[in-house]
Amino acid sequence: MCMLIFSNKATSLPYGLQKKLEIAHALGTTIKLVLLDELAESEKGIPRRVTEENYKGNISSEKRRFTLRFLFFATEEMCYNCCLEDNMCNHPDITRRVCGMKLENLYEILREIHGPQGKWWPGTPEEIIVSAVLTQNTNWKNVEKALENIKEYCKKDILHCLAKMSTEEISFLIKPAGFFNVKAQRLKNLLTWLKSYNFDLEKIKTKSIEEIRDELLSVKGIGKETADSIILYALELPVFVVDAYTKRLLDRLLGIKLKEYDEYRLLFEKTYPRDVALYQEFHGLIVEHAKALCRTNPLCATCPVESCKYKNTKK
Fold first, then answer.
1. Which of 31, 140, 148, 151 could form a disulfide with 55 if both were Cys (CB 3.0 to 4.6 A apart)?
2. Who's near 257: CB < 8 A, 6+ residues apart?
3. What range does the domain containing 48 cover?
4. Residue 264 lies in a domain
5. Which of 23, 95, 17, 85 minimizes the C-alpha distance to 57?
């Protein structure tokens, strides 16, 4: 069964997509067309009023007024591909519904391949907050060296300790992490925000995830990946972290590139339950898979993820 949603805002059905639908019908695919008599969208972007019709073969002249805008639900690979190849999945909520099809079993597949990841981001919550900044544009080994310098100097209570230091002093300690002057200033900015809560992480957690995220993103030098890393790993609140590995894996798996960071994040959060342990483990599995198999030059021949669009186009 393949359900398609059409919009009455356009004037024609793309010829290539029309032919694909006709082929799908000839192969026995059941296709239901949902024509919007009015594009009345709810707050979440789901159309409220629709009229339904079954697709019987050739598309009538009346239906040519409509162009495919959204794929609402599909279980047929061909219909799924139609949507992706014609770049029609441009509505964020519909994108999550469509692409979620490819994500449903990804966690189980990666866990079967790589096994449990355990505590993937090591350290205390305070150390994780600092390392979330240090890890920007560098590898983890360099972060470990810089973090060891901080721990050796501060002994304990590293947030209070760093807050009392000058930017130059912090720069000296974190030199192994690279871009040390920039990162030192970003740490100072973050520490100023933490100081407004008296460095009390539990007090921060009394706010909603959205409020915490907005506040972190208002700190100069803290982007979405860094903010979400702090929220998930240090504060242990359920928000999915999207890094370069996640984008690479998703782009190849789905065969399309999503436009915004939050599209990737919400895709995971709408497909899987919002659970801290699950998100931490899933993120660790994605990083492990990207390093082991889904590399810059991927090892598709040995990758067991059979639903990957990129892998299947290489065959």
1. 31
2. 247, 251
3. 2-88
4. no
5. 23
Q: What is d(CA 236, CA 239) in angstroms, rounded to the nearest whole number?
A: 9
| Residue 245 Cα to chain centre, angstroms | 10
Tell me if 152 is assigned to some domain. no
Q: How many CB atoms lie within 10 A of CB 141?
A: 9
Name the most confidently modeled range: 53-67, 83-97, 255-269: 255-269
> Which of 12, 51, 49 lies closest to 33, judged by CA?
51
What's the total number of domains in the chain? 1
- Please check whether residue 188 lies inside any domain of the structure: no
Residue 114, domain member (yes or no) = no
Query: How far is Cα 184 from Cα 141, in angstroms, rounded to an integer?
Result: 18
pLDDT tier at 299, thresholds 50, 70, 90: very high
Q: Give the highest mean pLDDT range of 18-32, 104-118, 133-147.
A: 133-147
CA atoms of 96 and 98, how far apart (whole Å): 6
Its pTM stands at 0.72
**Does 80 or 111 have the greater pLDDT score?**
111
Q: Give the 3-state secondary structure of 72-140.
A: EEECCHHHHHHHHHCCCCCCHHHHHHHHHHHHCCHHHHHHHHHCCCCCCCCCCHHHHHHHHHHCCCCCH
Q: Return d(Cα 205, Cα 126) in angstroms, integer.
A: 14
